[in-house]
Design goal:
By secondary structure, the chain is mostly helical. It is built from 23 helices and no strands. Helix 2 crosses helix 12, helix 3 packs parallel to helix 7 and helix 6 packs antiparallel against helix 7. It comes from Nezara viridula (Southern green stink bug).
Length: 404
């Protein structure tokens, strides 16, 4: 009985794991805040269409080098150091933004925040994978988009009610609460080990894993020449490109100003909150159902198809009110229904599953650099998409954006 009790006492605490991941995922909350800031802020700023497009898209341009910064930093300053650098990018972004409403200051702040976004999306999952126990690693790894949604939801909910400066300070406050413990102490507290022996055993396993990774690593130029690596990289680029072309980021960034043109019979500022809340509710379903009921491939294809149909219906609505001259004011809720359907379908597959698919298909020997390439290309596509979206809407109407 005493032996069994001792074993039970030394079992790692899952609660502590969830708590430490909560702390690390504050970075994901900051990511969501950067991405969601534009929707309530652009209507307050007296900007041209070109200026709106730059404010909305520059964070994605800043995100492009983020994965490479993480890849380099992991081998120099370590995981914890990388996370602190990303945290500093978020803090600097919000401080700069709160200091002035000058357009060029906002540009700089958006670029700084984008570096944090790009690095966080690739760096935080690595940290979680290393500090979480295997039996809960999958569940914890899937929480990133949920925390990202929380950050955007705060921006969507608070933004229309407060001034530009107060909203920037809200972003600063969300970033400021982040903190990470010293490495060994963090592992002991996180895992819940009560004996030094168990802690040393865990540290030894981590060290062996790092050595094995170094032994198996080869030059990127050597590894990428293998047909299987090239095929995996091409497929990875295709997957992240499809995620961007699905249209989530432009809708996140320009949600409020889009629906100010939808002839709604209620304030457009409420639409982003409805949209994101539905997405967060359905976000956890892939984690619970994909492997048991559908499989990743089926869920991904169904998600993409459903999201495309929803956007086409939304495009048809805008075509009818802008080009068809149809009075849809009494039925304007239909546009929000189409948006909610888009949110539902995108969060059931393409949004949460794209990067896990990329991580699964890339060979270990070139995974680090190839992940960075996929992340960089994804960010650049996102930048171009966000940059042209307002101009297309101005010249041809939102229906063209959604049909495209």
């Amino acid at each position: 009985m005493d032996g069994r009790k001792a074993v039970e006492e030394d079992k790692p605490s899952h609660l502590r794991a969830y708590l430490i991941v909560l702390a690390v995922n504050v970075l994901q909350i900051s990511t969501g805040a950067v991405m969601g800031w534009t929707s309530p802020s652009l209507p307050k700023l007296n900007l041209t269409t070109h200026e709106q497009s730059l404010v909305g898209s520059l964070y994605s341009l800043g995100a492009a080098p983020g994965p490479f910064i993480v890849t380099f930093g992991l081998n120099t300053i370590g995981r914890k150091g990388v996370i602190y650098v990303l945290w500093a990018c978020f803090m600097s972004s919000w401080i700069i933004m709160a200091s002035s409403q000058n357009l060029y200051v906002i540009y700089i702040a958006r670029l700084m925040g984008g570096i944090g976004v790009g690095g966080t999306c690739s760096g935080v999952p690595v940290y979680i994978a290393e500090v979480a126990l295997p039996e809960i690693r999958g569940r914890l790894g899937s929480t990133g988009l949920l925390f990202l949604g929380i950050g955007s939801l705060v921006m969507y909910g608070v933004g229309p009610q407060v001034s530009y400066t107060i909203l920037a300070l809200c972003g600063l406050a969300m970033a400021a609460i982040f903190g990470v413990k010293e490495a060994e102490e963090a592992i002991q507290k996180l895992r819940g080990y009560k004996t030094r022996e168990k802690l040393e055993e865990e540290l030894a396993q981590i060290e062996r894993a790092i050595l094995l990774e170094k032994e198996n690593s080869v030059s990127f130029l050597v590894g990428i020449r293998k047909p299987v690596a090239l095929k995996a990289l091409g497929l990875g680029i295709f997957v992240v490109a499809m995620q961007q072309f699905q249209g989530v980021n432009p809708i996140n960034a320009y949600n409020q100003i889009i629906f100010e043109q939808a002839d709604l019979n209620f304030p457009a500022k409420h639409v982003p909150v409805i949209y994101l809340f539905v997405g967060m509710v359905f976000l956890l379903l892939p984690v619970l159902l994909v492997n048991k009921l559908f499989g990743v491939k089926t869920a991904y294809i169904a998600s993409g198809f459903g999201a495309s149909i929803s956007l086409a219906l939304l495009g048809l609505y805008f075509y009818l009110i802008n080009s068809g001259g149809v009075d849809m004011h009494d039925y304007s809720y239909i546009s929000v229904v189409f948006l909610v359907l888009f949110s539902l379908f995108s969060h059931l597959g393409v949004s949460p599953l794209s990067w896990p698919i990329v991580a699964e298909i890339l060979p270990l020997s070139v995974k680090g650099v190839c992940t960075g390439i996929c992340g960089c290309i994804s960010s650049l596509i996102g930048f171009l998409y966000l940059a042209v979206f307002p101009s297309i809407a101005k010249n041809y109407g939102y229906s063209t954006d959604f049909f495209g």
